[in-house]
Amino acid sequence: MSEVFDLLLAGGTVLNPATGVNQKLDVGVTGDRVTAIQADLRRANARKVLDVAGCYLTPCLIDFHVHSYWGVNPYGCNLDALCLATGVTTAMDAGSAGPVNFPGFRKLVHEQSRTRMLGFVALAQHGVLNEPGELLDLGFADSDGAAQTVSDNRDIGIGIKVRLHKKAIGQNSRAALRLAIQSSEASRTPIMVHVGDTAISMEEIVDTLRAGDVVTHCYTPKKPSIIDDSGKLLPQVRKAKERGVVFDVGHASGHLDFDLVRRAIGEGLSPDVISSDLHGRMKQPGFGIVGDLLTTLTKFLPLGLSLDQIIAACTLTPARVIGWQDRIGSLEVGREADIAVLQIINEPTKLHDSVGKEMTVNQRIAARWTIRRGELFPGKG
C-alpha cells in the first residue's frame, strides 16, 4: 500500500546544496517529517496537494544574524511572523542576551516562537547595548559566564558574540577579543565578531581568529575594511578565508556597500553566510533598506552569485558553522519538514545599500510558502 501524505508539494524543483540536488521532484510530508522526495508522487495519496510548479523547494532558510530579544534588549524586535512569511524557520540572535539574561531569551523568545530561535551569547553580561556601549567598561565582560551559559543551553546556545566597534567597546577591542576566544574555547563553539570602526586593525582581528570563527558585517564600508585603499583584498583576510574563518554579510542599516562587495567578490571573497541583521533600532519603517532576508539574498544575484550559492549561504553553511548540519540546512527524507517554497519573480525592483547607492534589478527572490514542522504558512510574496 502506498504511503499517504498529509501534504504533497508537487511540480517544483528541489534545490538542496547539502546533497547537490537541483532537479524537478515532488516532496511528500507526513506529520512533521519529510517522507518522500521523488518524481511524480501520486497526488491521490495526499490529503492536501500544493501545486508549486515554477518554484524552488529548498531547505528552510536560516537567518544567521538577527536581534529577536524584543521588549528586553534595545536592539530586539519580534521577528516570528516575518520569518515564517519569508521562508525562514531558524533565526540566530546575535548577542542580545548575555549570561545574566539568557534564561529570559529562552523563556520569552525561544519558547514563545514558532520560528526556531537560537542565540549567540554575548561576552557582555547583559548583552549588546546602544547607550552606553556594553563593554566600554570591561568589567562587564564575563568570559566564564558566557561559556557556562552556552554549555547549560546546548539546545539553543550556539556560540559567543563580541562587538569590537568603538561605540560598543571603546579601546577595549584587543582584550575583549582575547576574552571571547577564551569563552569560545571553553564552550567549544565559534565566536561571532562584529567589525567596522574598530580600534584595532582588520589584519589583527582576522589573524587572531581561528577556523570556524565568524566575521560579521564583512562588507561594511566602515574602516578598517577588508579592502585596502587601492581596492585590493587584504592579504591577511585572504589567508583567513583560506584557513576557514567564516565571512558573514550581516547587512543591517550600515554594513553593506555594493561597490565593496563587487571588489571583494572579484578578489575571491564571496560571502560564506548571507544574513540580514534585522534589529529594532532601524530608523526606516519596515526595516528600511534591509527589508528582510529575501531582499538581502536578492541583492547578491546582480552582485555575482548564483542561486545555488545564495541558497547554500543561508542553509547549509550556517548550519555547518554551528555544528547543526545533521538537524537543519538540508531537505532530506526523515528530516523535520522545514521547507521554503521560493520563486524568482520577474519584475523591476529597487535595491539599496548602506551608503546611498541604488540599483534596479529585474528579478527578486520571493517566498510563496513556508513549511515549519509540516505546518503551512503563506509567504508575503
Structure characterization notes:
The chain is α/β, with parallel strands linked by helices. Helices cover 23% and strands 26% of the residues. It is built from eleven helices and 17 strands. Helix 3 runs parallel beside helix 5. The longest helix is centred in the middle third of the chain and has 15 residues.
Task: Summarize the SSE layout with pairings.
Blueprint: E1 7-10, E2 13-16, E3 21-24, E4 26-30, E5 33-38, E6 49-51, E7 56-59, E8 61-66, H1 80-85, E9 88-94, H2 102-110, E10 116-122, H3 143-152, E11 157-163, H4 166-169, H5 173-187, E12 191-194, H6 202-208, E13 214-216, H7 235-242, E14 246-248, H8 258-266, H9 293-299, H10 307-312, H11 316-321, E15 339-352, E16 358-372, E17 375-378
Parallel strand pairs: 1-6, 2-7, 8-9, 9-10, 10-11, 11-12, 12-13, 13-14
Antiparallel strand pairs: 1-4, 2-3, 4-5, 7-15, 15-16, 16-17
Helix pairs in contact: 3-5, 6-7
